[in-house]
Design a protein that fits this description.
seven-stranded mixed sheet, 49% strand
């Protein structure tokens, strides 16, 4: 499957952005979908994901502020980000996998497919 992330940009602290991840080349509904982010000089960090059962898993750092959703008919996943903070600044990546187990979701090395990333910058 091929993934294309979009929707990043520059926003002030407290603002909102919605990221999209468009998938092609696979049966989208059969994939776990995840969002990760990577700030300069830091390791890629888990943000949120749907596991293969359709359950949502969150990072504690974004719980209550970010919402993950997906539209299987449109082959698209979304990350709605509210109450953004400067520390949310990073390149955001979407990921997909057909076999990943829930216990491995938070580690980026276990995901097979990646989008190209979209920059999110939050100014203070």
């Amino acid at each position: 499957v091929q993934l294309q992330a979009s929707g990043g940009g520059l926003v002030q602290a407290g603002g909102s952005l919605r990221l999209s991840c468009a998938a092609s080349g696979g049966t989208f509904s059969r994939y776990a979908m995840g969002w990760f982010r990577q700030a300069p000089g830091k390791e890629r960090e888990f943000v949120a994901a749907y596991n293969l059962s359709g359950n949502k898993i969150w990072s504690d750092s974004v719980k209550g502020r970010f919402t993950i959703s997906r539209e299987n008919a449109r082959n698209t996943a979304y990350l709605q980000m509210n109450s953004l903070k400067p520390e949310d600044t990073a390149v955001y990546y979407c990921a997909a996998d057909r076999r990943i187990i829930t216990g491995a979701l938070r580690n980026y090395v276990h995901w097979d497919y990646w989008g190209q990333g979209t920059q999110v910058t939050v100014s203070s």
